[in-house]
């Protein structure tokens, strides 16, 4: 081991994984970053691709470009399948990768809570491909409805859009679809837009659980003003692609259900040799080590970190990046033979969500005030723009947002698959 | 007929079809524009999507947005299948559309000259989907080669890129791939770029047939300086996806063949009741009427217009848009009962082609001088930017081109399909 550098393997190039690789890039170690995609995805703006505001490559950044100058960081495009902790190897569909230290930063996927029909017939909103599918499908529904001149029932079914889940993703998607409809309205000269509807379904009694009660009420009011039919205390039980069935017996005829009602860790986590919770997350100790391992760590949406309360940490970027720092520091301590590993403590930076053009809510923390309306939207825009990867991307995205705000059009409304 | 407006049906929303619909939008007629896509494609920049310079929505513009204010123009998304001239109806996969006047502006598709294996295993370059496939495939080849550490033959096969056809599309594609390789080189720390190659295969003895001889020689020199292996007087006979076979017996091991060696009219043209030529184009008279019909016209790449020489008109936008004007004027004359239809005369505006970043050739005409190098590239850029549809698109594309010129990176290098 004297002349061999420690091998660090990171699974997942999300916010946590990329941060980790950037930190390790400066150390005397060999880093392998594994992801099934060749890009880092800026997930918070996925809803803008799904609603034709932004292009795919504005929220997807080539992973290798981050590490152009870091010869000790290698990207390996593959699907992680499991971990053999005994032999210290990561198993992938392109062979094994030996590690000295492994960090699981593989993220989350949609949780359909075992409802197979819903999973099969509705759209998840976690990957770039899913966002493109939603865009193509929603746009296509208008074209198809436009041709069904003689069948109102079928037309209404095609023009009824349902989003399930009152978290930030569901709120933002419902708001963005309702605005998309306003744009479509100008361009379908023969379609009756009274037949178009957007519904937001939430199982609990309010939206945005992480926000203060006044912001939650405000959000519902803004959504309703935008024409979104907000259905609280409503549970989905089945969906066959044509009719959404609710627990209270009601039915909604619709061809479009977008599911943003829950997440779970990616299935690969179950094959890593640690203890997993109900949502598939691997349990880590206060040092972020997977229970029972010294050299396997987990961070972000795929890790279950106990922090005093029953609720897990939110599935947001700051958790992953803050954990990345601690995991990096602890691994470097182990490499240097030090045993005083640090504990992780989450610093809550607040929460924000847009409810469409010129409207957002920002939750109060020690760092920032509680905001609503246009000023909250500006704050939201600023925070997202500076965090976007890619030098000219910030500029082109800013131009598109401004254009969208002022002109109310979306040039991203192209259907890239053909379903004639 | 007294109180019923004449029904104009246009097949195809390319340069010709959109120009026609815009002209008819100002007349007292009902227009239906039919296309299988919901977007107008700016085909001259397709090679930039296929090589990760631009995003899809920068060269694709929602058709309905053109006609937002024109209530007499209706878009109908469908695949045209044929024409029944007797009954005056266009047949589509979504039913029939009755017309009083019909204009075929359906464009061209790739011509593989009957070589079925080549068609099956190589990439065409006429649609947005094909450009995305090329981008995904080329980028993926680098990722796959990077994992084949122990098999040089397989690596070289993956890293050998062949473009067939020495017209503008082939030239531009080969130049853009060679530059893409320069960018990739900075990011694959363990790949030997001596194993990467780009070849341009042309059956005749020179490239760019529409250009002056000195510009053709210049183009070949620039391509060779960029590392493109230009193979003139070379004919392809077969391709199985692994090995490209040439007529002289040579073989090129390659996983990537991009076919830009010929076009033919879309197959639908054969079902329109007119006389078609060897390339599937429908023969029109000097008034642009389909032979034997008074009220069916054809323009652009799908029309065969005799203009004195054996060679057909070039398959470029100016032919289509100039013909659109004449077809429109002639149809309006027919509607008004006038019989003095105008003849079409093509005004050649010259030709231009880029050979990559900062290099282009512009052919001399009465309108513009003969140019090469950076100044030609600036002229090319200017002409393409002002013709791009979409207000902010011009701005975002200009930003990307400038960024690409100065920084030498391409952020569009994302693989949106997964072929793990």
TrEMBL record, chains A, B:
UniProt keyword Flavoprotein present: yes
Any GO molecular function: NADH dehydrogenase (quinone) (non-electrogenic) activity
Coiled-coil parts of chain: none
EC number from the UniProt entry: 1.6.5.9
FAD/NAD(P)-binding domain location: 7-324
Pfam short name (any one): Pyr_redox_2
Keywords: FAD, Flavoprotein, NAD, Oxidoreductase
Listed SUPFAM superfamilies: FAD/NAD(P)-binding domain
Domain of life: Bacteria
Catalytic activity: a quinone + NADH + H(+) = a quinol + NAD(+)
Family per similarity comment: Belongs to the NADH dehydrogenase family.
Name of the protein this chain belongs to: NADH:ubiquinone reductase (non-electrogenic)
Species, as recorded: Selenomonas ruminis
